[in-house]
Amino acid sequence: MATISPAELARMRVVYEVPGMDQVEVRRNLVYHHAEGTPMAMDVYLPAARPAPAAPATSATSATPAASAASATVGIGGHRPAAVLLIHGGPVPVAAYPKVKDMGVFVSWGELLAASGLAAVTFNHLHHGWHDLDESAGHVAAAIAYLRAEADGLRLDPDRLCLWVFSGGGPQLAPALAAPDPAGGGATAGTEPAPSPGAGAEATPHGDGAAGTRAGTPAPEAQPRR
Q1: Residue 37 contacts residue 121 (beta carbons within 8 Å)
Q2: DSSP label at 51?
Q3: Distance of alpha carbon 188 from its chain centroid, rounded?
Q4: pLDDT for residue 166 is more than 60
Q5: Kind and range of the H or E run holding 23
Q6: How far apart are CA 129 and CA 162, in angstroms?
Q7: Which of the 8 DSSP states describes residue 61?
Q8: 3-class DSSP state of 38
């Protein structure tokens, strides 16, 4: 079996695709926190904006051309989209911190979720190893707080946030859900999530599920990209 280089693995996208993935809106490199002198950035993937319903004409305005309807981001059910936070694993080398959210697996999941009517958030957080999970949990909490504070500008629903952990990001679920105001009221998902380590656990590096996500046969309705 051929060996896959780290660079090739970082570029690999998920196999499954849906129509409209190339039409989603992406807000890139939004700084939600600073840690160790490093800006922590996120990308927010949003469903493509649709024209808002035009207001009914009245007798006072029927003689003038109607103004163009403003566009709006509409999610499933015609409301602001719920947001899914994709929490990457680790430990992550310091040099790779700015690049994790740009891995093919996270970019393609962001596009797929947004094309399906949800908002998706990919973000970088510091994860040196099992010894600093509290610091990593603080970054996840900061990302959640930023999304809630900026929900109007980002056009997403601040009360519907789901946490999706990947591999070594698994231990971030417990502190996030134990918060006084947990994200999404407990809506969670995981791709090969690692459990919280017990005493004496070694800081064994974990991947981010890219190969596992890519493996398998795509569903019949998956659409090939041109």
Answers
A1: no
A2: E
A3: 13
A4: yes
A5: none
A6: 24
A7: T
A8: strand
CA–CA distance from 18 to each of 21, 47, 189, 206, 218 (Å)? 6, 13, 20, 29, 11
- Among 130, 137, 133, 127, residue whose Cα is nearest residue 176: 137
Of 112 and 132, the one with more pLDDT:
112
Residue count of the chain: 226
Beta strand 25-35 with 38-46: parallel, antiparallel or unpaired? antiparallel
The token pair at 204 is: 């064994």
Considering Cα of 211, then 33, then 45, then 97, what sign does the dihedral take? Answer: negative
- What pTM was estimated for this model as a whole? 0.72
**Contact residues for 22 (Cβ-Cβ < 8 A; gap 6+):** 111, 225
For 13-50+69-196+204-214, CATH number?
3.40.50.1820
- Domain ranges in the chain? 13-50+69-196+204-214
**b vs e for 38-50, b when ≥16 Cβ sit within 10 Å of the residue's Cβ?**
eebbbbbbbbeee
pLDDT in tens, 116-149: 999 999 998 877 666 677 777 888 889 999 999 9
Does residue 168 contact residue 206 with C-beta atoms inside 8 Å?
yes
